[in-house]
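Field reference: "sequence" (input) and "structure" (output). Example, Trichome birefringence-like N-terminal domain-containing protein:
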Amino acid sequence: MPPPARSPAAGARRRALIIPLMLLPLLLLLHLTSSPSHPPLPPTRKPSQACDYSAGEWVRDSPAESSPRYDHTCKEIFKGWNCIANGKANGRDLLRWRWKPSGTGCELPRLDPRRFLERHRNTNIGFVGDSLNRNMFASLICMLRGVSGEVRKWRPAGADRGFTFLRYNVTVAYHRTNLLVRYGRWSASPNGGSLESLGYKQGYRVDVDIPDQTWVEACSFHDVLIFNTGHWWWAPSKFDPIKSPLLFFEKGEPVVPPLLPPAGLDLALEHMITFVNKAMRPNTIKLFRTQSPRHFEGGDWNEGGSCQRNQPLLLEEVEEFFSLDNNGTNVEARLVNQHLIKALEGSTFRVLDITRMSEFRADAHPSTTGGKKHDDCMHWCLPGPTDTWNDLLAASLETVER
Ligand SMILES: *[C@@H]1O[C@H](CO)[C@@H](O)[C@H](O)[C@H]1NC(C)=O
Ligand SMILES: *[C@@H]1O[C@H](CO)[C@@H](O)[C@H](O)[C@H]1NC(C)=O
């Protein structure tokens, strides 16, 4: 359970009210001369503890309410994800849906970029994971740059990319890692070994207890980390189970008998959760984002699958796509989550559950406009649903005492 909420903003407002009025001009002067970028936190709809933001429905917003939070000129948008610039027919229309959590009176507030920067002043926030976490990172950067353009672009602590918002001293970085753990090509040694004696000739060596170099330093650098992994564990085209299987190693030795990827994922998660708990300072915040669903119809990505929807899926369609019983093309979303939830149970990680809300959004992938030979029904248009993931992130961080 998350700790009980307390609102620093509410305290500040109360104090502000009892300050004698005569002091106001002086305070204003001090305020103007000392720190122009230090206004009190604007009041905002507080996210409520009682609300479960992961369950709900997408409702149509009026055009006025659904103004884009940033536009296609944000430079951090990877080319293939820029659905508006690339002319995706519903590139603008897909923004007109708002996530409505199911509890009575529950609303997921939109991330307020100014408030976010103010609240996280002097904080380092890192995304660690595959390209879907980069997608979420890019969304956050675009939102924040809209209100605070003075940035330093750099690569902190081994990051693939990162920005410091200079007026607030907030750093947001992306650390690229496919499996979280270290892996590389493996081929049979002429001197033999336990894998060789089982007939393995080549594959990928995956060290389940060694974090990928790209994020080792992230643990001591960042105050908030958002992890993900999943797609690469279920990527037979990359890690063909016959031609190039994942071969798991622990303490430098092959795990024998060899494990299938789902069991390897369990081991890797167990080790990485332990590693992060040791490596991060106390009072840091660890979040694990659940699996991002894909929406391939009529075949997988390399079988001509596509996602030509103009609206979110209906409830029945979501079940058809993702229910484990149906074992459809995109079934890995819920499968991966089973492994994540099991591994995170009883840990100090918070779960950022974006799967359900995203399952509906078959309309929000780059599709044929992704600039690849095949349709992209895996990444998300920007602006798009990962903006809502960041709303959830902001709401989750609001409930943490700092
Ligand atoms: C900026 O934030 C970092 C990370 O919290 C901190 O170490 C550093 O002292 C801050 N710099 C300033 C000038 O406040
Ligand atoms: C699910 O489908 C895949 C491929 O279509 C198949 O290889 C696998 O055996 C199926 N799994 C179950 C539990 O039916």
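Residues 1-40 have pLDDT under 50 and may be disordered.
The longest strand covers residues 202-211.
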